[in-house]
Specification:
Elements: E1 8-13, H1 22-31, E2 35-40, H2 50-57, E3 61-62, H3 75-82, E4 85-91, H4 93-101, H5 107-114, E5 119-123, H6 127-131, H7 133-145, E6 149-150, E7 154-157, E8 163-167, H8 171-180, E9 192-197, E10 202-203, E11 209-210, H9 217-228, E12 232-237, E13 246-249, H10 253-264, E14 269-272, E15 279-281, E16 300-302, H11 306-313, E17 319-326, H12 330-340, E18 345-350, E19 362-369, E20 374-381, H13 382-405
Parallel strand pairs: 1-2, 1-4, 2-3, 4-5, 5-6, 9-12, 9-14, 12-13, 14-17, 17-18
Antiparallel strand pairs: 7-8, 10-11, 15-16, 18-19, 19-20
Helix pairs in contact: 1-2, 3-5, 4-7, 9-13
The structure holds cytidine-5'-monophosphate.
């Protein structure tokens, strides 16, 4: 008798180096009492051999659409009708693109179109290919339009020499997901996170302003990372951008403060990555200030320190993360701000290093937390730093939960 979990599984293997791991996966699925039928893409045969997969699964291994000796009924229909679930693992960028667009030049994509069963995808590829707009768009289509479930790739050392996102999920995780429905719950799911990005502009007159060199890249990367981890994101940005989450465009520090204060009550976290101007002209002239043959004096007044105001008034469970752009005594100054502004984490960077910080795609930071911990992140893409920070944020939420439990 097959146990309740026992299933007829079609495993589609596409042409990635992670294909070799499927020998073990097939063996394990079979050991757990499942009936596994393997379909290889044509190119996958470069990475795995049919014979061991045949032996391990005790089933024929399919690849070609048309085979006189194997079929009486069209094989893609026979396989589609008899399977309880389809797993594509490893799923390359190519097979994902084919799935998203319905291209049927492989047996496995025909089976997918002909079937009505749950489909799971375990992608594995080079980091840039995974993060590419097209791949992400295709994944979104598979998830939102077709209801396919993604077993996300992980960070790690990749066969292509890169270190980053794209490593196939472990066989254990794949099995837990497809057999026992244990999804990688998005760690920030259910959390509302406000992120600020860019540099504020303080009007002098209708054409001139006091600004700074912030590009908004770090803040936007943080908002993307939080969104990808399942958070409801509100990005308060001086830089216009179109996103799948809510973006509120602001210009001045006061506008930024207004938006944040109206959103913060319902938020679980605030990440202040924006470079907020500390001063603004007391009077912003309604008309363009005329050039005269004399100097002019601009009278400036202090802008509210948004971080400090919210740090003082926040509820215990709300987490606030600030940034500290420094040109000297980086750690010491950041530590002082962490304490003075009563926030939970501060990310400090050295703005005198040209390759990192303002306008750059990369950053190198020191992370200080309220519990006295210090972490140094060496120069790396801002997207990677953002993922690290949002992961740390999810860990802080977890630790709050644990404290509550005990
Ligand atoms: O004190 P300092 O301006 O260096 O602190 C930087 C941090 O404080 C950043 O997170 C920035 O977004 C925030 N900040 C703020 N309001 C200001 C100035 C800075 O929230 N007026």
């Amino acid at each position: 008798m097959m146990s309740k979990q026992t299933k007829n599984i079609v495993l589609g293997i596409s042409a990635g180096i992670a294909a070799y791991r499927m020998y073990d996966l097939v063996g394990e699925l079979k050991r757990l009492g499942n009936n596994v039928t393997v379909i290889l893409t044509k190119d996958a045969r470069n990475f795995v051999s049919e014979l061991p997969l045949k032996v391990l699964s005790s089933n024929p291994v399919y690849c070609e659409m048309f085979s006189a000796e194997l079929q009486s009924k069209p094989i893609h229909i026979e396989l589609a009708d008899s399977t309880d679930l389809i797993l594509i693992s490893p799923a390359t960028a190519d097979i994902i693109a084919k799935m998203a667009t319905g291209i049927c030049d492989e047996l496995i994509t025909n089976v997918l179109l002909a079937s009505r069963c749950p489909v799971y995808i375990a992608p594995a590829m080079n980091t840039n290919m995974w993060e590419h707009f097209t791949t992400q768009k295709n994944i979104e289509t598979l998830v939102t339009k077709l209801g396919y479930k993604i077993i996300p790739p992980e960070e790690g050392d990749l066969a292509c020499g890169y270190t980053g996102m794209g490593h196939i999920a472990s066989n254990e995780k794949i099995i837990k997901t497809i057999l026992y429905g244990e999804f990688d719950t998005k760690p920030l799911y259910g959390k509302k996170v406000i992120v600020t990005a860019g540099g504020t502009r303080e009007a002098i007159d209708p054409v001139r302003f006091i600004g700074n060199r912030s590009s908004g890249k770090m803040g936007i990367a943080l908002a993307d990372a939080a969104y990808n981890m399942g958070a409801e994101v509100v990005l308060v940005s001086t830089v216009p951008c179109e996103k799948k989450y809510q973006v509120i465009e602001v210009e001045s520090a006061q506008e930024m403060q207004e938006v944040i204060e109206s959103e913060f009550d319902k938020a679980d976290a605030l990440i202040m990555a924006a470079a907020v101007s500390d001063f603004r002209p007391i009077i912003a002239s309604k008309q363009k200030i005329k050039k005269k043959n004399e100097d002019i004096n601009l009278e400036l007044t202090r802008n509210p320190d948004i971080l400090e105001i919210l740090g003082r008034t926040k509820r215990d469970k709300q987490i606030i993360i600030g940034f500290s752009a420094e040109s000297e005594n980086i750690e010491k100054n950041a530590k002082e701000k962490l304490e003075k502004k009563k926030i939970d984490m501060i990310i400090a960077n050295d703005i005198t290093v040209p390759e990192t910080g303002f306008e750059s795609d990369e950053n190198a930071v020191i992370i200080l937390t309220r519990d006295g911990k210090k972490e140094i992140l060496q120069r790396q893409p801002k997207t990677q730093i953002a993922r690290y920070i949002t992961t740390r944020l999810s860990e802080i939420f977890d630790s709050i939960k644990e404290v509550k439990k005990t």
